[in-house]
Design brief:
The complex is a heterodimer of chains A (about 325) and B (about 550). With about 325 residues, chain A is of the alpha/beta class. Chain A has 2 domains: about 210 residues, Rossmann fold (3-Layer(aba) Sandwich); about 60 residues, 2-Layer Sandwich (Alpha-Beta Plaits). In chain A, about 30% of the residues lie in helices and about 25% in strands. Chain A has a 6-stranded mixed β-sheet with strand order 5-6-7-3-8-9, sandwiched between helices. In chain A, a hairpin with a 2-residue loop joins strand 8 and strand 9. In chain A, helix 3 packs parallel to helix 5. Chain B is an all-alpha fold. Chain B folds into 2 domains: about 270 residues, no CATH class; about 250 residues, no CATH class. Chain B is built from 22 helices and no strands. The longest helix of chain B has about 35 residues. The chains are: A alpha/beta (about 325), B mainly alpha (about 550). At the A-B interface, helix 2 and helix 3 of A face helix 13 and helix 16 of B.
Amino acid sequence: MTERRDDESPILPRSHEDAPGPAIRTEGLSKRYADTVALDQLDLTVRRGEVYGYLGPNGAGKTTTIRLLLGLHRPSAGRSELFGLDAWRDPVAAHRHVAYVAGEPFLWPALTSAETFEFLARLRGGTDVAYRDALVERFQLDTRKKIRALSKGNRQKVQLIAALATRAELLLLDEPTAGLDPLMEVAFRDCIEEARGRGQTVFLSSHILSEVEALCDRVGILRRGRLVDQGTLQELRHLAAQTVDVAFTGEVPQLPALPGVSVESVGPGALRFEVSGGIGPLIAALADVGGGSIKTLTSREPSLEEIFLHHYDGSDGRAGS
Amino acid sequence: MPAASGILRAPATPTPRAPASDRGVSIGAARALARRALRDARTRTLAFGYLFAIYAYIQPAGYRRAYPTLSDRLAFVHSFAGNDALRLFYGYPYDPVTIGGYAAWRVGGTLAIAAAVFGVLAAVRALRAEEDAGRTELVLAGVVGRRTAYLAALAAIAAGLLALWLAQWAGYIAGGLPVGPCAYLALATTSVAAVFAGVGALVSQLAPTRRIALELGSATVGLFLLLRVIADTATGAAWLRWLTPLGWAEELRPFAGARPLVLALPAAATVLLLVLAARISIGRDVGTGVLPANDTAEPRLRLLSSPSAQALRSERGSLAVWLISTGAFAFILGMVSTSISSAGISKSVQRELNRFGSGSIVTPSGYLAFVFVFFILAVSLFICGQIAAAREEEADERLETLLAQPRSRGGWLAGRLLLAACAAAALSLLAGLLTWAGAASQGVAISLPRMLEAGANCLPVSLLFLGVGALAYAIVPRASVGIAYGLVTVAFLWDLIGSLLAVPRWLVELTPFQHVGLVPTEPFRGGDAAIMVAIGLLAALAALAVFRRRDLIER
C-alpha cells in the first residue's frame, strides 16, 4: 500500500502554504463548442477554505467549467487559475492541489475498488491510507468487488473516497452525490463539513438544492453558460422576494396597491404576499385596513429553491449542451 | 395478455391513431430496433462491403490480364498444383484454369475468413454489446418482448449479410464473371458469415461481457481456420474440411462442378446456433451471461504504478491472445514451408508470380519471405488495436479521471505508444523465432538469425502505422480508429493488387508494403526502413504536440 508522505502534516495537505493566489480564479473564462456557447465570460473567485456551491440545471455549463478549471478542455477565451497556477499550461503542477470527482463514475471496469484506490493513489504519488480505510468503513464499500459489478451509486462512492482520501487542498466535485442513497448522502455531508474544518476548499457542482443550502458558504447560479447570481445565501435572499401569508377571521379586506408587493388569494380568507425590499409598508397597510381581523401572519425567507426558480422564471433555462 | 394491454391501451379520449394490435406494436418495435442496429453497424458494413467488392473485382480482372491464354494458365496451375503452402492462405484450388475457378480459389478462400470475422463482429455488436451497455434492459423494460428484440437484432445482421453478398456479387460481375455462377460463389462466402453470426449469437449468450464474447468468437474463427488449413495442406486430412464452415464454403465448389446441396450444412448450422442462442437468451437474466462473471477478487497490486503499467495490465489478455495465435500460425507456416520446391515451375510463371507480389516462392525460404508480408499485416493490425484501446480510454472518460491527477498528457500518450511499439516488437520477433522453429522441426535448413531478421523486418511498417495512427488519434479522435484500420487495409490491398493494374509505378509504391525487403530471400532494406521509422517517429511527435493542446473528447 502506498503510504502518505512524511513531510505532509496530518491536518493540512502538503504545499498549502507555498502556493499563491485563491483556490480558484477565472477571468472572462469562455468555451465555445462548434456553434454552442457552453460558458460565457465567467468571472469567479473561490477563496481558500470556502465551500462554494455551483448551481445550475443540466446543460448550464457546470461540467464545462470544471473541465476548463482542470485544463482538460482548452478555454476559447479568458483564463483560469488554481492556486495561481494555469491548469491549461501546467496541469501537473495545478493538479497536485486538486482532487476531482467526475460527473459520470466511469472507472476501469476490470479493477476492483481496492485496486482502483491504489492506482489513483500511485498516480498522485501518495494518499492518506488510514483516512481512506476509515472512509471505506463509513461509506460501507466492499472493496473486493470489480468496478463493472458495482451500481452507479457505489462507483460514485469509489470516486468520492479516492478524492477525499487525498486530502487535497481543493476538492472539485461534479454532482458527487448522484446515485447515493440518503444514508450515504448524510455521510457525504459529514465529510464535507470535516473538510471545511480542516481548511480544505470545496467546489461543489450540484443541482440538489438542499445539499447546497446545507453545505455551502457561497453559491453561484449558472444559467445558459452565464453566472447570473452569486453570493452568500443571505445575500441572495436579500434580492429575492419574501413570502408573507396572512389569514383573516372574516372578509378579506381591500388593500391599496403597494410598490414591490404582489398579492394572490390562496383560499377563503387567506392572502399570500410576495415582497421585494422592506416589509414595513405592507405591515402598515395591513394595520390600517383591519389589524383586528388578522388571525395569523407568517413570514418566511425564500428557500434556495425559490431563489433558484426565480432566476429561471419564464424559461426553461437550459442551454444546448 | 390481451386483457391487460386492453386496459393499458384504453385512452380516456380517443386518439387519432390507436395501435392496431399487439402484433402491430410488436412489428413496429422490431422494425425500429432493427433499423437502429443496422445504423449502429453501418460503418463496419460499408467498410467490409467495399473490401469485398474491390477484392472480388480485382482478382478475376488481374488474372485475365496476367494469364491471357490457356497455356499460360496451365503453366500457372502446374506450378501451384502441389503447393501446400499457398493453399494455407487461399484454400484448395479446384479449377484454377478458368477465371471463375481462379476467383473462387483466390477470392473465395480469403474473403471467407473476412466473412467469418464479420459474422462474429456483427452478432456480438448487435446482441452482447447492446446488453453490456445496458441498452437491452431499457428496450426490454418497454413493451418489447425478448423474442422480438432478438429477432430484430437478427434481421439487422441478416441485412448486413445481404449487403455483403450483393457487394461481392457486384464485384465479380464487374470483374467479368458470369452473373449466375458468381452469385453462387458470393453466396458460398456469405454462408460462412451466416454460420459465424450464429457463433457470435451463441457466444453473446455465454459471455458476460462484450470483450469476452469477442475473444470467444475470435478463438472460434481461429480454430475453424486451423482445421481448414490442416485439411487443405496435410495429406489424408481432407475429410476435416467437412468439420469447418470454412471448409463447407470450399466444398460448395463454385465454378468447379457446383454442389449446392452442401448449402444445407451452413444453413442447418446457422439455424441450430441461432435457435440455441434464442433459447438461452429467453431463459437467462438480462445483463448476465451463462459463464459466471468473476466480479470479486482480492486486490492484486502489480502493474498499477503508472498509466502505462495499468495499460499493459488491461491489455495483457488481448496481448496474450495475439502472441499465442501469431506464434501458432508462424510455427505451422514454418512446418509447411518444407513442401515448397522449384520443380515444375517455369521461368515465365515465376516472373508472373512476382507480379502477384508473391516473390519467388520456389524455395522454403522464398515462401517464408512471402508469408512474412502477412505477418507485417498482422502486426500492423495489432497496432490499430492499440490505437483503438487508447481512444476507448478517452471515450469512456477514464482518461479524464486519470489526467485530473498530477500526470501529464504527453506522458500518458507516449507511454501508450511505447507500450504498443514494444508489444509489436515482441510479436514480430516471436513470429520469426517460431517460423524458424517450425521449419527446423521439418529439417528445412534455414538460419535463425535470418528469421529473426525477417521478424524484425515487420517493425518499420508497423511503427509507421503507429505514428500515423497516433497522429490521427490526436487530430480526429472520433474517426481515428477507422482511419488506422482503413489505412492498413488499403495499403495492404494496394500492395497485392496495385501491380496488377495499369497504373504508374509511383502510385503503386505509395504503399509502405512495397518498401519492404522480403527477408530472408532479399536483403533487409535499411534505407527504406529508416525512412519509414523516421516518418512514424515524426508523426508520433506531432501527435504528442497536438494531443497536448486539444480538448479531451468523450464518446
